[in-house]
Write a structure and sequence with these properties.
The chain is of the alpha+beta class. Helices cover 20% and strands 46% of the residues.
């Protein structure tokens, strides 16, 4: 082999070695954690309809009757949100109210801005405590009333 052929051969070996090292590093950087959604906080996990399971105020459980378990919050991928409240009228469970607004999630912080709300209740700032494919648990500070925690399921 001539000197120039040896140099080209060595350069090809070095280039292939660097390429192989780059590919190996890239593959190792992709972990299997990407497939584990049990503690995920991405918007994709929040999008959907969530049904009320339980609530507590200042650590004391609040009764959630069968009718209230129909209450749901629907997060849409375009940032719209709808909360549907249910209550008993006479003996029948019916929709009591529907609120609409927009939501923004940043990490574990969820901000909801309601379209029509009483003064001082236009915006909710919520801490997401748990978010998985099937469970949403959040905490909201209600000021002088204390702290409300709620759990929802899909």
């Amino acid at each position: 082999m001539e000197l120039s052929e040896q140099s080209n051969f060595k350069m090809k070996k070095i280039t292939r070695g660097i390429t192989a090292l780059f590919l190996a590093t890239t593959m190792l950087a992709c972990s299997s954690d990407d497939d584990n959604n049990t503690a995920s906080n991405s918007e994709g996990d929040l999008v959907g309809t969530w049904y009320l399971e339980s609530q507590s105020l200042n650590g004391d459980d609040l009764e959630v009757n069968d009718c209230q378990m129909n209450e749901n919050v629907k997060f849409e991928s375009n940032g719209d949100i709808t909360y549907t409240y249910y209550t008993y009228f006479s003996a029948d469970c019916n929709i009591d109210a529907i609120e609409r607004g927009n939501w923004v999630k940043n990490g574990n912080d969820l901000t909801i801005s309601w379209d029509e709300a009483d003064a001082g209740l236009e915006t909710m700032n919520i801490d997401i405590l748990e978010l998985s494919d099937s469970t949403l648990r959040w905490r909201e500070n209600l000021g002088s009333e204390g702290t409300l925690e709620a759990e929802y399921s899909k």
